[in-house]
Design a protein that fits this description.
mainly alpha, 49 residues
Length: 49
């Protein structure tokens, strides 16, 4: 079960990083908002352990 959770978490983080990069490149997201998103994503991932 832990391996499955780790795999899903990894896949989510990879997809999220690529998706947010596209949003940033298209100008829909500022650099500050991108940093906030990544910090909140890491915090949430840490809290779910």
């Amino acid at each position: 079960m832990n391996a499955l959770t780790a795999l899903v978490g990894f896949a989510t983080s990879v997809f999220s990083r690529l998706y947010m990069r596209v949003e940033y490149d298209h100008g829909k997201l500022s650099a500050g908002r991108l940093r906030l998103y990544h910090s909140m994503f890491r915090w949430r991932k840490w809290r779910l352990r």
